[in-house]
Amino acid sequence: MKAAIMVPGPAGGAWEVRDVQRPVVGPGQVLVRVRASSINRAEFRRLHGMRSGEARTGGGDAAGEVVEIGAGVTGVKEGDRVMSRCAGGFAEFALVDAREIMPAPAALDWAEAASVPVVFVVVHDGLFASSRLLAGETLLVTAAPSGVGTAALVLGKFIGARVIGTSRSAEKLAKLAARGLDVAVRTGVEGMAEAVKAAAGPAGIDMVVDNIGADALAPCMEAMNVGGRFCTIGRMSGVHTAEFDIDRLAEKRLHLYGVSNRLRNAAQRAESARRFMDDLFAALSDGRIRPIVDRAFPLDAIASAQDYVEADRHVGKVVIAV
Questions:
Q1: How far is 174 from 106, CA to CA, in rounded Å?
Q2: Dist. CA 298–CA 320, nearest whole Å
Q3: Domains along the chain?
Q4: Which pLDDT belongs to residue 207?
Q5: Alpha-carbon distance 190 to 209, whole Å?
Q6: What DSSP designation does 218 have?
Q7: Nearest Cα to Cα of residue 101 among 92, 109, 113
Q8: Which spans in 88-168 are helix H?
């Protein structure tokens, strides 16, 4: 089968599209004929730091049809449309843990289905499980055109929140306005607190989903209402540490938390997928929720897809079509 392989090198890793052996299905696993796999920025960070070790297939999720089922797996059959987190989605076939597999609704095309298992499940964790965003509240999404940002916009609007989004690009914000963004704020971190406070008006900001990094923490805290919730998901700026006023944290009675799949074990990831399906599968199936997909690249163009994403040219998810 054909696969996009991450190959280590002295200056960081590089992509090679190769013919490799098809995976062998083990107990508790399902083999999926991949139709699409979405791009997640964390993979590129790993690639850039890959100077030694074994080459491996890229891709952290997959959508496609079940072609083979391992021992002990129930509730899925050959031919089923599915979507799931995985290791090795940038390939014609991928193994997935049967505990994490989710049906892919017929209402979603393959690119949309591939955009669900990582970012929508993690944003659901932030908005539903870790802290409940309520209808009528105001949600601020920083770096709103990103994959996680657009998922937060889509789920925030589904809940019934007023959504404010930030970006340095007026063109990208205009595209998101057409997809339901209530208030667009053209700003980077510098001047963010004043800009978003002015945009929010008297209602203020009840919750933040931050995709920028630690440099956005202080301005977001300053702009939030008393009792506000701050959820960090992305670190697009690459800034991982920051100082903030702990008195201000207490005065405003803020709740700070993070959401990530990185250190979660398979059982915990499976539980996140189950909660997501309980809350949102019906809305995915009837079209009330649709991921925002920017464009798809063929598998052979994986390096071009990486350049496109790292140049921040996209609005929504970028996928690899297999």
A1: 29
A2: 6
A3: 2-115+291-321 (3.90.180.10), 120-258 (3.40.50.720)
A4: 97
A5: 18
A6: H
A7: 113
A8: 110-114, 121-124, 147-159
Strands (DSSP E) contained in the chain are 2-7, 14-19, 29-38, 56-57, 61-69, 81-85, 93-97, 102-103, 138-141, 162-167, 183-186, 205-210, 224-232, 255-258, 293-298, 317-321
Strand ranges (DSSP E) for 74-233? Answer: 81-85, 93-97, 102-103, 138-141, 162-167, 183-186, 205-210, 224-232
Contact in structure between 217 and 230 (CB atoms under 8 Å): yes
Cα–Cα separations (whole angstroms), residue 233 to 12, 127, 244, 318: 25, 11, 18, 18
Share of residues in the chain with pLDDT > 90 (%): 91
State both tokens at 233: 């998901």
pLDDT digit string, tens, across residues 289-307:
999 999 999 999 999 999 9
- The pTM for the full model equals 0.95
